[in-house]
Amino acid sequence: MPTSSTRISELRGFTLLELLVALALLGLLSGMAVLAVGGIEERRAREEAAALRDRIAFASEEAMLQGEEYLLAVGSGSYRFLRFDAGERQWREASHPLLGERRLPHGLRIEIETEALAGSAEALTDATAATTDGESVEVLLLSSGEITPFSALFHAGESGPAAATLRGEGGGGLELE
After folding, report:
1. Which residue of 99, 101, 112, 122 is 20 to 30 Å from 53, comparing CA positions?
2. How far apart are alpha carbons 149 and 139 in whole angstroms?
3. Is 33 found in the same domain as 46?
4. Contact 94, 80 (CB under 8 A)
5. What phi-psi label fits residue 67: left (phi over 0), alpha (psi between -120 and 50 degrees) or beta?
6. CA nearest to 147, candidates 51, 79, 58, 47
7. What is the CATH number of the domain that holds 95?
8. Do 73 and 137 meet the contact criterion of CB atoms below 8 Å apart?
């Protein structure tokens, strides 16, 4: 027959120390979950910046191989590439699927800052006529391998600092930051 002292030790609960350790672990795990979820927008911005870098590199290679000029037109929530048709002397949609319109994920926007490329002012003025409303011509990719120097800032949301930056040098170099 069990005694009262045996029964009390069998019914013993958690100690204060055990409860504190469990709460600390729970807090640590929830903090990690918040950090993982909070970085999704920034990760998506970096992925889109990398996708644009790859498309610009591809368009630049096409420009050199085909001896044609390309340009990047950026709109509200999307971008696309145009190709200069020398025979008709006007800008047309780029024919390769990788250079077609790409829509940005919801909540992501691109802000592009450019520098002038020698001899590009006339080409950019002519190209503006080929764009749609709300779209602006931003980066010219020449058959010589030169590109308009630019910085593409990818923002996750309407305000705040850029989550990713893609920089293009006049000689054709691209750097993702």
Report:
1. 122
2. 8
3. no
4. yes
5. left
6. 58
7. 3.55.40.10
8. yes
